[in-house]
């Protein structure tokens, strides 16, 4: 049986990580994998997370199973963080999941159970896992235009044109903030137009929010998700705590399913619980408990929010420094988009050949689609990257 298996393509980003580690050059810059790093290249455990973990070790009296949806206090705390009071609580069913990936996977499975004919519209480009999970589940997937490779902003006209092909019951997958991989985001007026189209056509909205607090601020980054949640009848939201709490390996996420009518919530909840049961029974608890403790303890929450803000502002500063440096070296404003983009990534919009040239000539590692992780830079490496980009004729 096992001999029938075919080899699977290596994950490109993980392969790049290995290549970086094996590169003997002292001067090299890793802009590949999507993990926040500070100026020293370290992905730190956040202060509030350490404090909450210490408290958990002291106070936790049992590691017995929690319910299938996970700890209800986690769902409440995350719903509050992501949605504020934009939606009536009794319209929301929710399950804890292993990371944002788990939430995305369970959301797609729920779509398939509820409507086997649904197609999912995804941005071109999107986080590659969206596409690969949809393919794995056999869900028809349609790309909509998203990134204008000239301006490196959203191709909004193209996006609306392509979404106009969606039929009632189809799902539109949107990134709540900090689009991965491009860094280009809709403004709130554009969000409203997408919502209008969704409502006119009777579509389902799905929002993946994995970087709340990395763009314009905790509430600001949730604004679009809240607008969708309060204006569309049926909404699925996959939220990840990996980045904004720095708990990547703890696998902490939440799937929310918002029904039009609160009477549907119990049955939606049953189906979400069922999906958890089929896939892994109980979701991971440690990260969820840490997050809950932070969000519900005013002191821990304030410290967490302050550290997250330092991280966000640090990335914005690097963006500005890089845009300024490129402006200086190239004598043109064509790299201004780097300061406009938000989140951890920017797609600089060049060819795989040029990306390879940056790696070979300068030890600069970015993903083949020219996505770079801004957090992989620091004040000293920004000028090196800027020079390499200009020298490569990008
Ligand atoms: N969605 C998007 C768009 C992401 O970029 C990520 C992280 N790479 C995730 C979801 C999920 O991350 P995790 O499973 O680590 O929480």
Describe this structure in words.
This is Aromatic amino acid aminotransferase apoenzyme. Keywords: Aminotransferase, Pyridoxal phosphate, Transferase. Its cofactor is pyridoxal 5'-phosphate. The protein is an alpha/beta fold and 394 residues long. It folds into two domains: 11-44 and 312-389, Aspartate Aminotransferase, domain 1 (Alpha-Beta Complex), CATH 3.90.1150.10; 65-296, Aspartate Aminotransferase, domain 2. Helix content is 46%, strand content 12%. It contains 14 helices and eleven strands. The strands form three sheets. Strands 2-8-7-6-5-3-4 form a seven-stranded mixed β-sheet, with helices on both faces. Strands 1-10 form a two-stranded parallel ribbon. Strands 9-11 form a two-stranded antiparallel ribbon. The longest helix is centred in the C-terminal third of the chain and has 33 residues, at 298-330. The mean pLDDT is 97. The protein binds 4'-deoxy-4'-aminopyridoxal-5'-phosphate. The site of 4'-deoxy-4'-aminopyridoxal-5'-phosphate has 14 residues, from helix 4.
In short:
Keywords: Aminotransferase, Pyridoxal phosphate, Transferase. By secondary structure, this protein is α/β, with parallel strands linked by helices.
Biggest sheet: strand arrangement: 2-8-7-6-5-3-4
CATH hierarchy class name of the largest domain: Alpha Beta
CATH superfamily of the largest domain: Type I PLP-dependent aspartate aminotransferase-like (Major domain)
> How much helicity do the residues have?
40-55%
Low-confidence stretches: none
- So, CATH architecture of the largest domain? 3-Layer(aba) Sandwich
Report the CATH topology name of the largest domain.
Aspartate Aminotransferase, domain 2
Largest sheet features = 7 strands, mixed
The average pLDDT score comes to 97
Distinct small molecules bound, one entry per kind: 4'-deoxy-4'-aminopyridoxal-5'-phosphate
Shape, per Cα inertia axes: globular
How many extended strands? 11
Strand pairing plus helix content: what structural class?
alpha/beta
Question: What string, H for helix and E for strand, traces the elements in order?
Answer: HEHHEHEHEHEHEHEEHHHHEHEEH
Number of domains: 2
**How far apart, in Å, are the first and last alpha carbons?**
49 Å
- Radius of gyration (Å): 21 Å
- Oligomeric nature of the chains: single chain
Organism: Cognatishimia maritima
GO molecular function: identical protein binding; L-aspartate:2-oxoglutarate aminotransferase activity; L-tyrosine-2-oxoglutarate transaminase activity; pyridoxal phosphate binding
GO cellular component, one term: cytosol
Family: Belongs to the class-I pyridoxal-phosphate-dependent aminotransferase family.
């Amino acid at each position: 049986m096992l001999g029938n298996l075919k080899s699977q393509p290596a994950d490109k980003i993980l392969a790049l990580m290995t290549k970086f580690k094996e590169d003997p050059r002292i001067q090299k810059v890793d802009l590949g994998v999507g993990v926040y790093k500070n100026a020293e290249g370290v992905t730190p455990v956040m202060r509030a997370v350490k404090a909450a973990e210490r408290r958990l070790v002291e106070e936790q009296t049992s590691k017995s199973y929690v319910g299938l949806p996970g700890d209800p206090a986690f769902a409440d705390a995350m719903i509050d963080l992501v949605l504020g009071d934009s939606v009536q609580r009794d319209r929301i069913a929710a399950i804890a999941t292993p990371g944002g990936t788990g939430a995305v996977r369970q959301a797609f499975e729920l779509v398939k159970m509820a409507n086997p004919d649904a197609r999912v519209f995804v941005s071109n480009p999107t986080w590659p896992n969206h596409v690969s999970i949809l393919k794995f589940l056999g869900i028809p997937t349609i790309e909509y235009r998203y990134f204008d490779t000239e301006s490196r902003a959203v191709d909004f006209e193209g996006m609306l044109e392509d979404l106009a092909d969606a039929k009632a019951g189809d799902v539109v997958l949107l990134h709540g903030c900090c689009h991965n991989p491009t860094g280009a985001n809709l403004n709130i007026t554009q969000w409203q137009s997408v919502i209008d189209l969704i409502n006119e056509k009777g579509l389902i909205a799905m929002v993946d929010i994995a970087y709340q607090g990395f763009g314009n601020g905790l509430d600001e980054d949730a604004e679009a998700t809240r607008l969708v949640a309060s204006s569309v009848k049926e909404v699925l939201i996959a939220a990840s705590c990996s980045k904004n709490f720095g708990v990547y390996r703890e696998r902490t996420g939440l799937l929310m399913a918002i029904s039009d009518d609160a009477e549907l919530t119990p049955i939606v909840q049953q189906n979400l619980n069922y999906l958890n049961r089929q896939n892994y029974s109980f979701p991971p608890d440690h990260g969820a408990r840490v997050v809950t403790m932070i969000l519900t303890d005013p002191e821990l929450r304030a410290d967490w929010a302050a550290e997250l803000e330092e991280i966000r502002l640090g990335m914005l500063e690097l963006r500005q420094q890089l845009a300024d440096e490129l402006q200086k070296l190239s004598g043109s404003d064509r790299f201004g988009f780097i300061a406009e983009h938000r989140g951890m990534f920017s797609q600089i919009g060049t060819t795989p050949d040029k990306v390879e040239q940056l790696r070979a000539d300068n030890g600069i590692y970015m993903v083949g689609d020219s996505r770079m992780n801004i957090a992989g830079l620091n004040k000293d490496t920004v000028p090196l990257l800027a020079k390499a980009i200009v020298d490569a004729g990008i």
